[in-house]
Write a structure and sequence with these properties.
By secondary structure, the chain is of the alpha/beta class. The protein has 13 helices and eleven strands. The strands form four sheets. Strands 5-4-1-6-7 form a five-stranded parallel sheet.
Length: 274
Amino acid sequence: MSESVKYAILDTDFVSKANIIKSNNRVLADEVLEFPGYHFYCHQKMKTELGDHGTRSAQAWLDQKIALGDIRCYDDEQIIKELREAAGNHCYAYYQSYLMEGCNMIRSDFYEEYFAKLDEYLVRENCDDAGFLDVLRNCESLIGHQKSYGEVKACVLLKAISFVYSVETFIFCSDDFDARRSYANSAAIPCISILSVFLKLWLLKRPIEEVQPYYQSFIDWCTDRENPQVNVRVWRFSKGSNKREKVPIKNILMDIYAGKYEARKDGDLQLKTE
């Protein structure tokens, strides 16, 4: 496996926000897809959620990138197919394990509440793909169309890709701290947030003059709303412990380009120790 190749998923919230942040006629999501060495994926559930909750421009962007082959969109049938090729009839047990991990990111009893019928199916001797997927769909119908559980499917896909291709996987995901912490800690999946994208652009030696318009668009999105956000939380190691502290959003990009930050596994920014 080449160290330079990275496999990553884009989640619904990230795609939505990265299509709002723009410079001229180019969105931040376009910059992300050009990060060198990345192979990008999404789950079909993300497409559905983006259709329910995202903007039309974000939907159109995702559809176009999938059609061009820039992003590979998997459904559960494709996941089971690739797991079967790697693990034979154990594919269902692998999928179930990944599903449980994803459900635990929402709450500890989420799997038991909605997917108990899947357990009942898997004790049968003659499981097959069609039967497994049918029971899975029936279980998911109990959750409801409008209830978001895209992070569950993202976790399943990430874990499957990691197993099948023997690679480390990443997720470009929500700026919601609890969601990112669940990916990083519960599922052991490194996260890349909108803020850490700007750190990556600096690491890729993109001139600040090119990045500044995107960052100003990000600031505008944070501040031009009913409850303006003027600060973000970053981590600082002080007096023997690591703590989050508020920093004005307007200062972050200049501090990134001054080399003051590094990225944490949960996607937060960490002030470097001197």
